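Notebook B, p. 112. Complex prediction, attempt 2.
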Amino acid sequence: MSSRRRKSARVVTTLLVLAHGRALAEGDPFQTVVRAGREDGVPDERAHTQVSRTDLERRQPRSTPDALRYETGVFVQQSAHGQGSAFVRGMTGQQTLLLFDGIRINNSTYRQGPNQYAFTIDSRTIGSIEVLRGGGSTRYGSDALGGVIAAYPIDPLWSEGQWLVRPELFLRSTSADSELGGRAQLQVAGPVAGGSLGFIGGVGYRDVGMLQSGGQVENPNPNTPLGRYPLVPAYAKDGVTQLGTGFRELTADGRFVLRLGDYQKLTAATYHYLQFEVPRTDQCPPPYAPAGTCLTYEQQFRHLAYLTYEGKLSDYLWPLRLSVSVQVQHERQRLDDPSVLVQRIGTDEVLTLGFVAAARTRPILLHRRVTLSLHYGLDQYTDWISSDAYRTFTDLNQTAKQSRGQYLEGSTYSSGGVYADGALSLPSSVTVFGGVRLSYAVARAPAESLSGSRAVNQSWLPVTGHGGVEWKPQKVLSLRLNADHSFRAANLNDLTARQQTGPGFQFENADLRPERATTIELGAILDHSVIGAQLWAFETLLHDAVLKVSKTDAECPPATPQCVGSWTRLQLQNAPSLSELRGLEASVRLRIPLGLLLRSTLAYTWGEGPRVGSLGYGTTGVILGERVPLSRVPPLHGSAELIWQRASFELSAGLRWATMQDRLAIADYADARIPKYGTPGFAVVDLRSSFRIGDRVQLGGVLENVGNVAYRYHGSSVNGPGRGFMLSMKID
Amino acid sequence: MFKRTLIGCGLWMMLGVMGCESSPATMEDLMPASQCMADKPASVMCQPFTGALSSCKCSSDDYAPRYSGSKNDTWPTCVSDGNAFVLFGTSTPGASARTVAFVSMGTKLWKNSAVPSAQDMTAARDEYAVANGIGSRVARRQDIHYPEVPGTNKFACNDLTIAAQNPDRCAGPAKLKAIIDDAFAKGIAGTKPQVQSARIEAALLWFFYLSSLSEVWTSSFDNAADVDSAWAYLSGTERSKPIGLGQYFQQLDQETYDRAFDAVLAARCWRDLDKTLPSGCNLFYQRAASQVDKAFTRGMALILRDRIGKLPTLSGEPQEAALSFVNIIGLLMDRAARAVDPAKADQLKTSTQAATVAGVNVGQAQSLIDGLFGCP
């Protein structure tokens, strides 16, 4: 190395160290990469990231899924402005698992493809979110094929000395969707006999208007019969306001935490999310249907209450965590169809009772420099389904109950399992990981003769597991190799539901088998206080992957004229051969001079499965091979954030980008949400600022989509917000 | 072989994540060059009409699969030469389900031997209003005999405001929907259910007539497989067992029905010769569309003629029902009649739009229909 180069290197190093020292003194905004080290968090050896409360306040997400847009390997699809579904490693919905404070949010009605349920976790109650990429069934059971999204609520203040009362008020307004709302929150903490008690609770409300985009996203190929623009969304006359957007939201929550000494904690919590009048954008109106036709989620509610005991009782229960939960998911859909003067109302409700027991051991010394740590536990969830549907002739106000709802009334679903998961620390900085789980799932549904619905009586006993090894050749560098085998048992949506989906009418398959994912991942992690970087490569082989397969009219279930009348009829089927997903994920965080902090991510996923079925009605000029892309796999995408922080002041810029995705599954060609044929790429920049005025007031401002770019996340019905501001104020 | 592919792909970690693309093995909906030249058979001839239609002139430019498998007409060899409809798409179109629903509604309403009850009316309306059912298509159906709605949106009739401004082109939402909605409401309320049934029957026959023509049109620019729907709205069955509109035609005149079936086979033949989108062969498109229009219009004229003939044989509500039917189909036929002979169209309209049976000159009306629409 020349003396000049050495000198330059020294200067850069000095600047980095100076910058590092300053940053440490001012707080660490890199909590998204550096683990907070939750005892109940996702397995540390796996590919994962964390969104902190600081990130949430900086990014001002519109929802919980929106909060994940800057996370490595996460791509957020939206079928409606009031819905969002995170793709992790090419999978979403029922193929990923959503947890809240360790409790499963997923239930047996999660459908194939994106769903709206992550939106029903109020982002203003979240303290942090962890995203585990890759299979996680050993620890978490069914559905954790593509990843696990684990949200953790804000814990109340803790005071052993005196009683504290801390009221807070948060207000926000946006221009792109005319959002106006806020949250009032109260925290109380103080000593009680034998310990301390903390409470945090609040109520929130917001009214969100129709979303203006930066313009109309165009079809990549303007020479298809559709011409220049996709069929959805529909726009108002200004050409940017998207019809079928907007909603109202009401939230309420309360969380008591009783700490009994240093080792025991009792939590009683309840969270309520109520969303009203959420139009599904691609169905408002559906392609070719008259204006006024609209599928609206009139009510999308989630109520969760649970009691958790956590205690460090012995070396083998360090800690023991027991949770009992009750959850109600309620949704009421309304289809307004003015073409026939009909309104259809469907109500589906899922009552879930859950029990989780999880424990860890303290490291057990097996031999000199050889220690073993174990996680182990069991869990059990049972769903009870009620579902009905009504048709009303609006001109006569005449209502009739239909023979069945989306689901079969009286269906039940139970699932759970036992597991043990360990880490064996060996000499030479090597740690070996491994675990196994025995699960079960039982699906029961009654037959319904008028609709020709078969009874379901299925059960499965899947065995899953994982293994891995970590080697740390340097203190700041670790190399990891993991193999995981996870599963997703067919649920009641797969087995019994009939529904209009984006690509067409989808009907049940009572004979589906569980899908299984075997993932091998290789990671390199550099974790220095100045620079951090992660590089992960993965390959997932899906056995019996559940695919949407186009069907003929003769294959429709009996008594379903809406099926035979559809352009595209689909049924879920297990793929006859392996499907595969592979990809790369990279992230970098860097402290650079002038107090700037840089964080960047990049991810690419490639998915392919066997060709089953045929192209949708009207698809032209497309050549298919024997193997075809998997549905809605995200394109190459990434993000970057540049942050400049001072004690009472912060400026940051965020960049999100994606390249065009034209690798489409067969069902994607019939999906009006996907332009013909592929979703164009984009790059969107947001500028943000926040500053404190005195001790009690914090103001925030975001100029979103600075370039007023017309963009759409692949598979979405709705385009992203156009240029606009977002103003917030927090008083505490 | 597949395992080997996977093992190969498993090496991606070292080689990068791209690659392992399977080579295309089959092609779907690939668009070959259009074959758009009229055939020149050794002996160009057409099958002369016989019987009551003997005065009609045949044309060798009409597709004639029943006549030596189309060997003597000026259409090149195509998929329809076997005299059976071969689907363009991969499965039976949803239009077939709508034809089946029409038949099912008929058993509850206009073919019901008893007076339709409110329950019958409600059940029929449920069939009509089901998602992707007949009602969903009535609300967007265009009459392609009229000029398109100005602008670039070929489906502008979906907007009820635009439809109201263009009632002739947007016949489904602007004319038929109102008749059907009103008839169902009154029928369920018990107001002259036979009359309401007849109004629904007439409006839906009008819809099915427009639909086959419209599907041939949309097949030319929007979705080539719509040609399957043109067949499905005629009957959606094999030639010898028609249902729906095709059955009406057949019961009144076998040759008219056969010509209608020949016409949808002609449309399918055109889409076999020209798979391009938008269509690259106006010659065969125009021929097929014209053949469909002529045969179907003749069929509808026969339905009108038949119902006019029944008027004197009926009384009470059944007679009123038949008159309502004539009023509606008469409106439809006015455009076609006027295109042939405006003066005769005026005369025919006087009868078909009569408010009472006394105002209908049955003999004259039937004679006018025979003269205006004598040949399929």
